[in-house]
Amino acid sequence: MLQPDVIRNRLLAVIAFIVVIAALRWSYEVTMPLVVTLFIIGAAWPIKPWLEKILPESLSYAGTILVLFLILAGFFLVIYLAAAQVAGTFAENQERFRSIYDSYAAWAAERGLPVPGGNNGYDNLVAIAQVVFWDVYTVVGYLGVIAILVIMGLPEVPTFAKKLREQFDARENRELIDTIDETAGKFRQYIGMTVLASLITGVASALWAFVMGLDLALIWGVLNFLLNFIPVIGNILGIIPPTLYAFIQFGDITTPIVVFVGYAALQLFISNVVYPMLQGRGMSMPPVAIIMALLFWGWVWGIAGALLAVPLTAALLIVCQHFKSTKWIANILARER
After folding, report:
1. Quick one: which of 17, 81, 317, 324 has the fewest CB in 10 Å?
2. Beta-carbon-side half-sphere exposure of residue 257 (alpha carbons within 13 Å)
3. How far, in Å, CA of 283 to CA of 318, rounded?
4. Cα–Cα distance, 135 to 137 (Å, whole number)
């Protein structure tokens, strides 16, 4: 039988968990940029020692920030160009999409099949898409705040590490530093692995569109490259726009189905063969854990939470592994190796 103290501690732990989650949702405007800043600094920190080999220390910080700026600027320039091209193309063909949707709705209604969007379905789907794009725009709007935090935070890393060493004894300090280093290292592995997998996905998607004669092949490749940063859900979403566009371009049913099947096969192969090979002994979590993380962090922080779901969960698992009372959580959620 459990002792009263054990029951009390477990109840307090549950209450504390609920309070922390509520606080994260309520303080999204503050905590999300801070977490992203910490991840960026952890991922970019190895650039500084590398630049110190060719630059003075005072310039290595500026060089690190410049490298980060060029990477992020290029990344979001590609996002903007791809999104603008896709949005413009779909806007030009809006009536054609409405006609296709109405045809499907009539066909599905006759057979008792579900119709996406319900009453006024097409307008509802467009409204949902607008909400999603607005959420993405809101996340991008935080980049200025995050950039300032990164610029101010990078020079403080050595001072912060020194203060940690002064505040804890040798054993505690070593364990804490090891946890921080392991978390940053795992996040760097995740970034490298995801970028490589996304490049493979983007190139394969563009090639398949080119083989099928689908217009905007480069755009579909870029779109799938970007969506691959959201595991599982992004892979599914990347199939929909080129398939819908195939209906407009080819005007039949057979070719869009072939386009859909080809993209689905590519995503399944990359997700189940290529991605696990790249993952290796990195941030290894089973697909069920990844989906749970996406749902949970997406609920807490929306689009930003979905993007950060895997590294955030992996960081929490690393922390759980360092404490006996929470090690069981890491053992349950980690993939067997």
Report:
1. 324
2. 3
3. 10
4. 5
Output the DSSP codes for 7-43: HHHHHHHHHHHHHHHHHHHHTHHHHHHHHHHHHHHHH
CA-to-CA distance for 263 and 261, rounded, in angstroms? 6
Residues in contact with 128: Cβ distance below 8 Å, sequence separation at least 6, in sequence order: 117
**Kindly report the CA angle at 291 between 285 and 296, in degrees rounded to 5?**
110
Question: Domains of the chain: which residue ranges?
Answer: 28-167, 169-337
Burial of 88 (0-12, 13-18, 19+ CB in 10 A): exposed
Q: Which residue reads 């192969």 in tokens?
A: 269
**pTM assigned to the model:** 0.69
- CB of 294 within 8 A of CB of 303? no
- Residue 288 tokens read as 């069920």
Residues 256-291 have pLDDT tens digits of: 899 999 999 998 888 777 776 765 555 567 777 777
